[in-house]
Amino acid sequence: MAEKSASERPVLSAIVVNFNDGANIGRCLSSILDGAKGFPAEVFVVDNASSDGSPEEVARRFPSVRLIRSPENLGFAKANNLAIRQSRGEFVLCLNTDAALLEGTLPALLDEFRLNPRTGIVGPALHDENGRFQVSFGGRVGFFDELLKKAILNRYWAKRLRKDRARRKVVWVSGAGLLARREALEAAGLFDEGFFLYFEDIDLCRRVGEAGWDVVFLPAVQAYHKGGVTTSPQRLRRRLAYRASQLYYYRKHNSRFSQALLRSYLSLVFRGMALKAGRTEPGEPDPSRFLDLLKKGGGR
């Protein structure tokens, strides 16, 4: 990370939200620090009350990183906002702990902003350790759009991205690895803290677009993303968080008809899960809580 004086504004503010991911955060931070060599940058880690010793390891191994330790799990949106408000960079990078920048990724993403003044958010193509591409961008999100994406488009794009390198404007890119212009973030009002986990990136990108900025996906620029690390040990809790955010997103952005379709679908899914309540793992939520989501309409 380049040295900077107290008055020099950093070009980049990189933010990593950590929750018990000591296995991966070291690689993530190293990739940021390596990628930011040559220009002023600052790196933040917001730790969501981890109990695996990872914040202590970050403090020991990466003394230049600003570690913000929360006494509670704030979720992804609120934790990112906490660091964004303390940061000063012209551009803000949000990167998951289980993601890592490749050589040349960061300069290529920054070039997009320099070449296109109306770009507000840009995202790279994400792939796993086996080179399989993940669908980390998309269009509008509605009931039938999601069905089409899961049934057809995810497989189509996962194959096409092996050869497709065309820059494209999209509705959203994944928060696992996105770079934003601060001016665009502030115009959109940062992340909506009504989301705890999931959909906060789609919501942010949509609002950035509504504020007049472009959201861009660059498949020629790539980054690594393992995926599902911080949530995989508790499958039901993850699904509960996902559906809560999905319901909240629909309530914010979609028609009453689309909301009704989702609620009807989830009612059937949740009732089926409730019948299997005896199979839940220790520490996971009672599936009946999913039915309560339908009454609340999602969100925190």
Jot down its keywords.
single chain; alpha/beta; Spore Coat Polysaccharide Biosynthesis Protein SpsA, Chain A; 2 domains; 10-stranded mixed β-sheet; 12 strands
Describe this structure in words.
- With 300 residues, the protein is of the alpha/beta class.
- It has 2 domains: 12-225, Spore Coat Polysaccharide Biosynthesis Protein SpsA, Chain A; 235-296.
- It is 42% helix and 21% strand.
- It contains 10 helices and 12 strands.
- β6 (119-127) and β7 (133-134) form a beta hairpin.
- α6 (182-188) packs across α7, α8 (235-253) packs antiparallel against α9 (256-275) and α9 (256-275) runs antiparallel to α10 (288-296).
- It is globular and about 55 Å long.
- The two termini are 36 Å apart.
- The mean pLDDT is 88.
Give the end-to-end Cα distance, rounded to a whole number of Å: 36 Å
| Quaternary structure annotation | single chain
Gyration radius, in Å: 19 Å
Structural class per helix/strand content?
alpha/beta
Number of domains: 2
The biggest beta sheet, please? 10 strands, mixed
Q: What fraction of the residues are assigned to beta strands by DSSP?
A: 15-25%
In CATH, what is the homologous superfamily of the largest domain?
A: Spore Coat Polysaccharide Biosynthesis Protein SpsA, Chain A
Main CATH class of the largest domain? Alpha Beta
Named at the architecture level, the CATH assignment of the largest domain is Alpha-Beta Complex
Global mean pLDDT: 88
| Helix residue percentage | 40-55%
Number of helices: 10
Instruction: Please report the total strand number as a whole number.
Output: 12
CATH topology of the largest domain: Spore Coat Polysaccharide Biosynthesis Protein SpsA, Chain A
Shape: globular
**Poorly predicted runs of 5 or more residues:** none
Order of helices and strands: EHEHEHEEHEEEHEEEHHEHHH
